[in-house]
């Protein structure tokens, strides 16, 4: 029997008419922490992936798009942190939040079911595409948004330029087969780096680049699989030739793997990638190092981390959106 799925009820609980609150204590929103562009962008990604959203979910997409366009300055950079009293607490920049905003806007421009949302998201995406970030993950996230645009508009020059620049910033993997990765360490959302290289190789017709990305992702999946279950790199990261901690594992790692493996499956037609998506889904249902479910059926919220003592029962935005994103891929599995 298929396991229950979380749906969007906790995301609706975390959201108001401004955006999505970043943190929760168990399932109760902690409003004093306010909002961040990172999570709102993730929310726009998952809302726009739904082909036939209910009215409440369409309203969330409207809200999230309005937040991102408010966060964007005339140069295309973005603020990240908005307090509960609706004041920005930072200056616009091109850190990870810029990359995720570009991912959200690109996904909305390509997939959202509402025509005017697609149009306005593309306008903001084009403005943001004038920027570049020195940070590989920021560029990877932005490149994933560019890939979404290119899949529906193959001749979009700004998206094509951004995607190829993202792959270049990620860099080529090391030639050492024991560590075929562009950096000597793994930190967070690692699979996004491999995914953007895969997308760049596929959409540009660059076969060696595509093969490089697939090899990166294969290695990343292999080193994070133990006895057929996922055991992802924890929040502390892992440096080459150093001991690897087992906890605190984060849902964002699992969601990034699910995203990348779903892209690899689409690009290659190889069913082996579907099995890797299933491992990501299973991690949330308890096929993990603690044997514990990583979400609450009562609330629909995703738990914030897998610790040595079991789940961190707080259900913030990042973990809940990682859960929803992964389960969206489950629904598309053959």
Q: SSE order in H/E notation?
A: HEEEHHEHHHHEHHEEEHHEEH
**Care to count the β-strands?**
10
Q: Poorly predicted ranges (pLDDT <50, ≥5 residues)?
A: none
CATH topology of the domain at 9-33 and 176-332: Glycosyltransferase
Number of helices: 12
If strands are numbered along the chain, what order do they take across the biggest sheet? 1-2
For the sheet with most strands, the description reads: 2 strands, antiparallel
In one word, what is the shape? globular
Q: What separation lies between the terminal Cα atoms?
A: 16 Å
Rg (CA only): 18 Å
Overall pLDDT level: 96
Keywords: Transferase
Protein name: Glycosyl transferase
GO molecular function, one term: transferase activity
């Amino acid at each position: 029997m298929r396991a229950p799925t979380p749906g969007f009820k906790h995301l609706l609980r975390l959201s108001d008419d401004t955006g999505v609150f970043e943190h929760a204590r168990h399932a109760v929103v902690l409003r004093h922490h306010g909002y961040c562009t990172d999570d709102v962008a993730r929310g726009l990604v998952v809302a726009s992936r739904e082909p036939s959203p209910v009215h409440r979910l369409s309203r969330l997409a409207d809200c999230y798009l309005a937040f991102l366009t408010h966060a964007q300055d005339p140069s295309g950079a973005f603020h990240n942190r908005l307090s509960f009293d609706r004041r920005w607490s930072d200056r616009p920049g091109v850190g990870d939040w810029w990359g995720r905003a570009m991912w959200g806007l690109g996904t909305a421009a390509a997939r959202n079911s509402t025509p005017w949302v697609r149009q306005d998201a593309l306008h903001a995406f084009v403005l943001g595409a004038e920027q570049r970030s020195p940070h590989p993950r920021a560029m990877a996230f932005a490149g994933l948004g560019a890939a979404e645009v290119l899949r529906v508009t193959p001749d979009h020059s700004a998206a094509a330029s951004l995607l190829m620049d993202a792959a270049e910033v990620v860099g080529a993997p090391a030639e050492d087969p024991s560590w075929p990765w562009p950096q000597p360490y793994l930190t967070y959302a690692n699979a996004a780096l491999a995914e953007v290289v895969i997308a760049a190789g596929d959409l540009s017709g660059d076969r060696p680049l595509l093969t490089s990305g697939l090899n990166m992702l294969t290695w990343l999946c292999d080193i994070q699989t133990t006895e057929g279950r996922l055991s992802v790199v924890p929040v502390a990261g892992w440096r080459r030739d150093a001991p690897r901690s087992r906890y605190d594992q984060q849902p964002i790692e699992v969601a990034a793997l699910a995203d990348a493996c779903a892209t690899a499956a689409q690009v290659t037609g190889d069913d082996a990638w579907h099995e890797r998506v299933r491992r990501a889904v299973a991690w949330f249902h308890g096929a993990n190092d603690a044997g514990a479910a990583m979400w609450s059926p009562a609330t629909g919220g995703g738990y914030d981390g897998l610790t040595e003592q079991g789940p961190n029962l707080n259900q913030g935005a990042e973990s809940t959106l990682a859960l929803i994103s992964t389960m969206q891929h489950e629904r598309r599995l053959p």
